Amino acid sequence: xxxxxxxxxxxxxxxxxxxxxxxxxxxxPVHQRIVERESVTAxxxxxFLHKTSRSFSRVVKExxxxxxxxxxxxxxxxxxxxxxxxxxxxxxxxxEPLLREFKDRLEQDGWTxxxxxxxxxxxxxxxxxxxxxxxxxxxKPVYQAIIKDITNQMGNGMxxxxxxxxxxxAGVNTVAEFDLYCWYVAGVVGEGLTHLFVEAGLGxxxxxKHSQLYKSMGLALQKNNIIRDVREDxxxxxxxWPREIWSKHxxxxxxxxxxxxxxxxxxxxSEMVLNALGHAEDCLSYLVNLREQSVFNFCAIPQxxxxxxxxxxxxxxDIFAKNxxxxxxxxxxxMVESSQDxxxxxxxxxxxxxxxxxxxxxxxxxxLKITVRFRSLLKLWHSILANVPGPRLxxxxxxxxxxxxxxxxxxxxxxx
Length: 416
Known about the structure:
It is built from 21 helices and no strands. It is mainly α and 416 residues long. Helix 3 packs across helix 4, helix 5 (65-86) runs parallel beside helix 10 and helix 6 packs antiparallel against helix 10. GO terms for molecular function: D-glucose transmembrane transporter activity; squalene synthase [NAD(P)H] activity.
């Protein structure tokens, strides 16, 4: 929005402006970047981070100093990889080796890439990728190894799907294939971040053993994006909703966007939301095991926004006509709530899943399954509330009361 449209919007929605002001006035960053101590390349990396994702940049910049630069560089590396994968103008014979060998470019001082089409959003990041490589090479070897491993996994996964699309099979067919795609483009990010958190001493060591939890953290966010962006992806000739789901409701994927098929389309979208909600319980369990406030905020805020977006998309015909998103005011409210503690984040999850249940249509074939999912999430949350005292998360970690209760969920590191 421009200044004029912003002013008009907030004049008509003063409560949204109040929520933003509340965040500005009440929020104190857990950690502050010390810009004057940063190298020229580090400053440039943060400038790229801000350009590629303002919302993500906000939470990254408040991370614990130990993880500030590693997470920033990790994100930019994967964004560079994604920029190559997204560019349909790059032929497979060039794209496939770029994706598979991207990890090796991280060791190549001065490497850049100018082969993206001019209109590609993050083209400039790759044009100046030598800046990112310089900061990557400056970080601890253990962090380099983690990031390089995830880059390798993601690059090969993207290359596999690019080859599949080039052979004429551009869509996702089964739910298992849907999960695999989401794993390659987002789940592996959860794996890498978890290893970084644990290596930095800011997450429970046992998190690494519970791959289902960090997998769900990534898949929940990616599935949310895929549901929300269905119209935009369709217009770009891309289809990520699995045939196994949409074929129950329409004969052809294009039929979802025809007004005469609206009820079928809404039932299909509710099944997609149901699939995404299957990760919510794992996400809460993951958040239990984060030791430090800035890391907790970094993980909790996107998950809360994803839950709000799922509720917005649920049985909403607008998703088949345009890209929908939560309001700025709602986003800031979620940031306020989700930067407190697990108890508050759990309340956010339950609030939005309750709204989903309120919109649940008895005529929808997935009505009962959605109801079961709703009750299951509430049951988990009530179990958390019943078994642990109110959590107090600090810059050092959870309070001793809360920490000693974490073993109830089978995830706390054994001291022996």
